Amino acid sequence: MAKVLNLGLLAWSPLANGVLAGKYHGHGSSEPGRMSSDAMKQLPPEQQRTDRIVAAVRTGSDEVGRSMAQVALAWLRYRPVPVIPIIGAKAFSVAG
Prior knowledge:
Blueprint (H helix, E strand, L loop, with lengths): L8 E4 L33 H19 L3 H10 L5 E4 L10
Parallel strand pairs: 1-2
Helix pairs in contact: 1-2
């Protein structure tokens, strides 16, 4: 629809709240990710779809030598319609 109407899209949370950044799977880290816990293994069937997406992004990441986040954002960049990613940021305080 966006292509037909010549519209751009806003992609909310293109890294899926950190899932595609490897935060939950331990990709690029020596520590196990958050998804490795027994509690997380009990997730609903949508988790199977998420696992397939993460595996595909991880494969691409390994092939091109870039982070999973970089691969996910590059995928958005090369869609047939302009996509503007909205990436959240954590609040932090500056001491001193």
